[in-house]
């Protein structure tokens, strides 16, 4: 329900209409006698009228009592026996006329976090970047749309759009509320970090390839945070690993998400820059962030108690690492460095995906196949998938970050463009 002018003499606005309450304002030259509320055609009571509305009084000073034009009604749950209900409002002025309005498909489903726990024995994960509790709520609300195991890209976009609508409607669906608040909180914090971050690398000049003090942006990090949330919602076990952290911006962002989700995080880096590989572009020591600098940044902006550091080149530090992983993120620049990381893929849950830098907007052909010439890193990842007899799929997320997974096994990731309805 939106603000309408239904005649020259009646003005009203329904400011909020959800499963818990309805509120708004209404004015008429003769005054308002009562406002009646019905659910699914059944009268459930009259709203309390005469509530203070100074804003309306300022806008309509010539209407008597416009500053007391507010009304509100609190619903009794027993009148809402369907997940979506039609709510009707009758505005009855003192002159006896009746003005009717209604809103269809008000979400009246109430779901707690306990209702959203995934049961691996009786429920099948959906291959979509949407938490299980939200999937469950959408299936209850719109079964004809969401009771399918084949979640196409179009259905994923629709699900996220519908979730944004549910959140803005103040629906009492805890999985929706928790997911959106998590993402909005991470997004706000990541952008705060970016504003406060040391803009330039103090040990380089600004036009060097590592002249900037930050290697990624919030638009890239939010996709990884969302994936961690989704994987956690399905009870997928394991920890999170980052390979290559530079000055620690991504580490700060992702340690905050890991702390919120109670996921231990591992940061692998030489803390001495890139190794010498004979590259004509990258030099030994490029993209160096010292351990002291990185750990100080994480302590300031992130959540350092969630992090275990693994100091040294990947070829050495991954040898004894045997911890099962829920997900991993790599920003390693070089084919040889990516190759050194690939043994860790064996520790990843098959439902997960790999996030990597050096995955550009033109790294995929129109048919979804990879253009390996665009990146030093992608060929090493693909070689590992091929060696293990696994098919490979991927999607560009933002700027230079993409996600890679096994089609039919891994849960795809969502870019900020897809998640946008949850932020607007």
Task: Describe what this molecule looks like in 3D.
The two termini are 19 Å apart. With 424 residues, the protein is of the alpha+beta class. The longest helix has 23 residues, at 174-196. It has two domains: 4-107, Immunoglobulin-like (Sandwich), CATH 2.60.40; 174-422, Rossmann fold (3-Layer(aba) Sandwich). It is elongated and about 90 Å long. The protein has helices spanning 54-59, 132-141, 143-146, 153-168, 174-196, 218-233, 249-261, 291-301, 314-317, 335-341, 377-387, 416-419, and strands at residues 4-5, 11-17, 21-27, 32-39, 42-46, 48-51, 70-74, 84-93, 99-107, 239-243, 265-269, 307-311, 325-330, 354-357, 393-398, 401-405. α5 packs antiparallel against α6 (218-233). Mean pLDDT is 92; it is low at 1-5. The protein has a seven-stranded mixed sheet, with helices on one face. It has a five-stranded antiparallel sheet with strand order 1-2-3-7-6, with no helix packed on it. A four-stranded antiparallel sheet has the order 5-4-8-9, with no helix packed on it.
Taking all residues together, what is the mean pLDDT?
92
Fourth CATH level, the homologous superfamily of the largest domain: Vaccinia Virus protein VP39
Spell the H/E element sequence. Answer: EEEEEEHEEEHHHHHEHEHEHEHEHEEH
CATH topology of the largest domain: Rossmann fold
- Counting DSSP E segments of at least 2 residues, the number of strands comes to 16
């Amino acid at each position: 329900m939106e603000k309408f002018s239904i005649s020259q003499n009646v003005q009203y606005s329904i400011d909020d209409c959800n499963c818990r309450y309805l509120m708004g304002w209404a004015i008429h030259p003769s005054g308002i006698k009562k406002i009646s509320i019905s659910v699914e055609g059944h009268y459930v009571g009259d709203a309390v009228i005469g509530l203070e509305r100074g804003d309306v009084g300022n806008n309509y000073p010539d209407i008597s009592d416009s500053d007391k034009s507010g009304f509100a009604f609190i619903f009794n749950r027993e009148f809402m026996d369907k997940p979506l209900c039609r709510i009707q409002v009758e505005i009855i002025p003192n002159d006896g006329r009746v003005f009717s309005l209604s809103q269809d498909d008000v979400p009246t489903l109430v779901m707690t976090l306990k209702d959203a726990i995934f049961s691996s024995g009786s429920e099948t994960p959906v291959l979509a970047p949407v938490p299980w509790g939200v999937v469950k709520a959408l299936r209850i609300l719109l079964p004809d749309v969401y009771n399918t195991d084949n979640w196409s890209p179009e259905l994923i976009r629709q699900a996220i759009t519908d979730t944004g609508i549910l959140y803005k409607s103040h629906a009492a669906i805890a999985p929706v509320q928790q997911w959106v608040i998590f993402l909005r909180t991470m997004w706000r914090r990541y952008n705060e970090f970016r504003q406060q971050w040391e803009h330039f690398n103090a040990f380089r000049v600004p036009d060097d390839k590592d002249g900037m003090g930050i290697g990624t942006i919030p638009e890239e990090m939010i996709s990884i945070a969302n994936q961690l949330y989704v994987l956690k919602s399905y009870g997928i076990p394991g920890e999170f690993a980052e390979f290559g952290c530079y000055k620690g911006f991504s580490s700060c962002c992702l340690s905050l998400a890991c702390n919120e989700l109670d996921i231990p995080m591992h940061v692998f880096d030489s803390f001495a820059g890139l190794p010498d590989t004979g590259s004509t572009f990258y030099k030994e020591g490029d993209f160096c962030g010292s351990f002291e600098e990185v750990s100080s940044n994480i302590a300031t902006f992130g959540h350092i108690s969630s992090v275990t550091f693994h100091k040294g080149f990947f070829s050495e530090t991954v040898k004894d690492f045997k911890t099962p992983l829920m997900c991993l993120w790599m920003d390693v620049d070089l084919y040889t460095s990516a190759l050194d990381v690939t043994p860790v893929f064996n520790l990843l849950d098959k439902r997960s995906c790999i996030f990597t830098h050096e995955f550009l907007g033109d790294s995929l052909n129109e048919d979804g196949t990879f253009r390996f010439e665009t990146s030093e890193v992608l060929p090493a990842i693909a070689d590992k998938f091929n060696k293990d007899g696994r098919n490979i799929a991927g999607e560009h997320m933002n700027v230079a970050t993409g996600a890679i997974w096994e089609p039919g096994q891994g849960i795809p990731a969502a870019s900020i463009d897809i998640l946008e309805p949850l932020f607007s």
